[in-house]
Amino acid sequence: MVETETKVQRYKRYIDSGVEWLGEVPEQWEVLPSKRFHKVEKQLNTKRVCDNVLSLTLRGVVNNNPDSPEGMVPKDYATYQVFDKNNLVFKLIDLENVRTSRVGIVHEKGIMSSAYIRLVIGQGSFPRFAYYYFFSLYINEVYNNLGSGVRSTLGPNDLLNIPFIKPPLSEQTAIAQFLDDKTTKIDEAITIKKQQISLLKERKQILIHKAVTQGLNPKVKLKDSGVEWIGDIPEHWEVKRLKYVAEINYGISPNEKTYNNQGLGTVLVNGPVEYSKSSFGYTRSLKWTTEPVKFAKKDDLLFCLRGSTTGRLNLCHQDLSIGRGCASIRGKENHQFIIKAVTALKDQIIETFKGSTFPSITSFELNNYSVPNPPRSEQKEISVYIETASQKIESAISLKQQELAKLKEYKSSLINSVVTGKVKVC
């Protein structure tokens, strides 16, 4: 278990730092521009002196495989810059995006993008304390606010002018060690929560798959469905193509001139849209100047047909027009059963385009995917069972997600409170 409260003391006296996001700091701590303590250096790997590729990620600085790297890579690693152990690396571009990595501490000598900023920590500063301080600015979105408006990038001089808070070196070391210990324990607890959530989601998927392929009677006689992904089904069931049990509508791509902010209806250009609590892909919503031609109906199942989000699903929250990259599915007899069957089918659909540089599913392929087709009365029973069982699992997932959010909030609060001296740990 991770303690949600840490028994710490406050310092005897505080003074106003003069910096909005710092507030009051212990009176013996210095607050001066970062350039008074640290420096920015850029050493390009022009002579290929280093081939250890590193990457700044949300997990921190990690080793990268140059033969199978994460993210974008250059044509020539000679354009990368060299970082030494205990340097800090900053990615202060695209500051409108608050959900990307911004700062990391380098664990060993390596090379990273020349677009990053390399900060060399001064001798009077403990590198890991400096990291935690600049990380606290990241989690409080200080960089994003400094780069708001027309600026979406902060340069080396901007970074050097950011105030740096500097306790005595012995306190920096103690603070960093304290945070290393605490954040390690919190991260371990976070990992466990994520694993628990993943297992619950897997359990839900297994429950749905079993119910829509074998029904609710464990004693029923089974037969081979003739479809590999479906496997055995009850003897009295059928297997049908999706087009025979569902209405499938495919979106269109209207001319951009038909859009404005005062028009009628919503166009789903590249869906499914992220309009619910679930995250199912990226889109932009526009308005039509005339009544839209094609609608997805409320509660239809939206299915993404192309791009990096191919196979993503979501439920339509209202009647809306859909773009060419999206299809809507509505069951003819029991809509809820078809939703569950397609959800179970999704993984098999995804298998059909693995390895493609631009994954996509054609209308012919989607129309002709096989789905189990039990009698109508059983479809209803199965739908009710799945809904009830799923709600219980979703409640458990929601609880774990709340616990996960509290752990992340606690970690952020702890780092910020300790590195700014709001609490004393030594």
What is the tally of helical segments?
8
Major sheet characteristics = 4 strands, antiparallel
The secondary-structure class comes to alpha+beta
Task: Please tell me what the overall shape is.
Answer: elongated
The CATH topology annotation of the domain at 14-167 reads as: Adenine-n6-DNA-methyltransferase TaqI, Chain A, domain 2
CATH class of the domain at 14-167: Alpha Beta
How much of the sequence lies in strands comes to: 15-25%
Radius of gyration: 27 Å
Count of β-strands: 23
Order the strands across the largest sheet as they lie in space: 4-11-8-9
- Which stretches of 5+ consecutive residues score pLDDT under 50? 255-289
Q: Write down the overall mean pLDDT.
A: 85
- Name of the CATH superfamily of the domain at 14-167: DNA methylase specificity domains
CATH structural architecture of the domain at 14-167: Alpha-Beta Complex
Could you estimate the helical fraction of the residues in percent? 25-40%
Give the termini separation.
Answer: 23 Å
